[in-house]
Design goal:
- By secondary structure, this protein is an alpha+beta fold.
- It folds into three domains: about 5-150, Porin chaperone SurA, peptide-binding domain (Triger factor/SurA peptide-binding fold); about 170-280, Chitinase A, domain 3 (Roll), CATH 3.10.50.40; about 285-385, Chitinase A, domain 3 (Roll), CATH 3.10.50.
- Helix content is about 50%, strand content about 20%.
- The protein is built from 15 helices and eleven strands.
- The chain has helices at about 5-15, 40-55, 65-90, 95-110, 115-120, 125-150, 155-170, 190-210, 215-220, 245-250, 300-315, 320-330, 335, 350-360, 390-420; strands spanning about 30-35, 35-40, 175-185, 230-235, 255-265, 265-275, 285-295, 340-345, 370, 375-385, 425.
- A four-stranded antiparallel sheet has the order 4-3-6-5, sandwiched between helices. Strands 8-7-10-9 form a four-stranded antiparallel sheet, with helices on both faces. The protein has a three-stranded antiparallel sheet with strand order 2-1-11.
- Strand 1 (about 30-35) and strand 2 form a beta hairpin.
- Helix 1 crosses helix 6 (about 125-150) and helix 2 crosses helix 3 (about 65-90).
- It is globular, with a radius of gyration of 24 Å.
Length: about 425
């Protein structure tokens, strides 16, 4: 089996047995309570099996089942908490969105969906199981995104300051491939416990400098978000990293072991796996217009979709102009007052589903109705252009960098708060 390059696909593959999609087993038992949900022994066993398969294909040694089981239960706890949040928000990933996401994954792997199904089957993974775990991952991700976005505030002066730094230092030209180990210090830990964790971190650094495998140590010891991926974060620009990472990079090069260094959650160790150089910035702008309908107790999803289908038919038949329909129907007051037009924008500013539409639609084509977190839309791309906007592009980039950095930091803080406020009781597994 080939190593899965897509991060989402990788998560799905080694978490296919998680939660409600786990196959029922005789003598199955509850191993962990998470508020009003449970994690079953079959959940843990299924993921443990998949992690072993993935590691074997990569010739990656693994720690003991006891250590892996602890990591797996932690991941299942966090996934369950996020799914509980999604349920509270009423978040549902319908089959259309799910199929589109799977099609994108297949396209990224340069294959058809049918070929993807065959490859999954050859790995012993049922397609229906794959779909449902994809749905869980997308649901958890959407809940996280909605909550974390509310916590992020970016001031114009922050954008200006970072844009100046980008212009001076050309930070956007360098990318780092990094790996990370986090040793957690629990709230309320004693001085002796903190010192013991620091001593353990120093010992791990010593082992790494003597040639120990970073991924193996991450599997065994890390409590960080990428522990079950061997600690690997992949390629990131310095300004896109969490601040605690970016502050440590400095002039270190390929192969450098950095740390241990302290943050509010514990001690960290980083390795720079590789570095690559300059990128060129190409800015494509899209001029689009849309009509938005928001669902409510009065207007259902089906009702919004039908209204937009009717409006689209009238526009295509020449019975109504797009501008008139936008002014009459659209729940986006800013664009409705401007005949539905959004102006020249880079697609990256839009939510994923809208971004995909404006990037893929031929100019002059009106889309079928589609749904985003904002509601139901139809959109028409009026024109595209490639422009040299160096100053504006740097500011756009500065905003995205700040958002990405703050999103990563706030997402971790939100997840920690979820966990701290949850009722979690570990009842033990068959591996104990």
């Amino acid at each position: 089996m080939k190593k899965w390059k897509s991060s989402l696909l990788g998560l799905v593959i080694w978490s296919l047995a998680a939660g409600s999609i786990a196959a029922p087993k005789e003598m199955d038992k509850v191993v962990t309570l998470v508020n009003n949900s449970v994690i079953l022994q079959s959940d843990v066993d299924g993921m443990l099996k998949t992690v072993r398969i993935n590691a074997a294909e990569q010739n990656q040694p693994l720690p003991s089942d006891e250590v892996l089981t602890e990591q797996i239960i932690e991941k299942l706890i966090l996934e369950t908490l996020q799914l509980q949040q999604a349920d509270q928000f009423g978040i549902r990933i319908d089959d259309t969105r799910l199929d589109q996401a799977i099609a994108r994954i297949a396209q990224e792997r340069q294959m058809t969906v049918a070929q993807l199904q065959q490859e999954l089957a050859s790995s012993g993974i049922g397609y229906s199981m794959f779909r449902e775990q994809m749905r869980r991952d997308m649901t958890a991700s959407e809940a996280r995104t909605i909550q974390v976005r509310r916590r992020i505030s970016i001031l114009p002066q922050e954008v200006e300051t970072l844009a100046e730094q980008l212009n001076k230092q050309n930070l956007q030209s360098v990318q780092f491939n990094i790996s990370h180990i986090q040793l957690r210090v629990e709230d309320g830990a004693s001085k002796a416990q903190r010192e013991e964790t620091e001593k353990q971190a120093q010992q791990l650094v010593s082992e790494l400098k003597q040639g120990a495998d970073f991924a193996s140590l991450a599997y065994s010891y890390s409590k960080g978000p990428k522990a079950l991926q061997g600690g690997e974060w992949g390629w990131m620009r310095q300004e896109e990293m969490p601040t605690i990472f970016a502050d440590q990079i400095k002039s270190n090069g390929k192969g450098a072991i950095i740390g241990p260094f302290r943050s509010g959650v514990g001690y960290h160790i980083m390795k720079i796996n590789d570095v690559k150089g300059l990128d060129t910035v190409s800015v494509t702008e899209v001029n689009a217009r849309h009509i938005l309908l928001k669902t409510s107790v009065i207007l259902s999803d089906d009702g919004a979709k039908r209204q937009l289908e009717k409006a689209r038919k009238k526009i295509l038949a020449g019975e109504q102009t797009f501008a008139d329909a936008a002014q009459a129907l659209s729940a986006d007051p800013g664009s409705a007052a401007n005949k539905g037009e959004l102006g020249w924008q880079t697609p990256d500013i839009y939510v994923p589903e809208f971004k995909e539409k404006v990037e893929s639609l031929p100019a002059g084509t009106i889309s079928e109705p589609f749904k985003t977190v904002h509601g139901w839309h139809i959109v028409e791309v009026l024109d595209r252009r490639n422009v040299d906007r160096t100053d504006a592009a740097v500011k756009d980039r500065a905003y995205r960098i700040l958002f990405s950095r703050k999103f990563n930091e706030e997402a971790q803080a939100w997840i920690q708060e979820l966990r701290a406020g949850a009722y979690i009781e570990k009842l033990g597994t068959d591996n104990e």
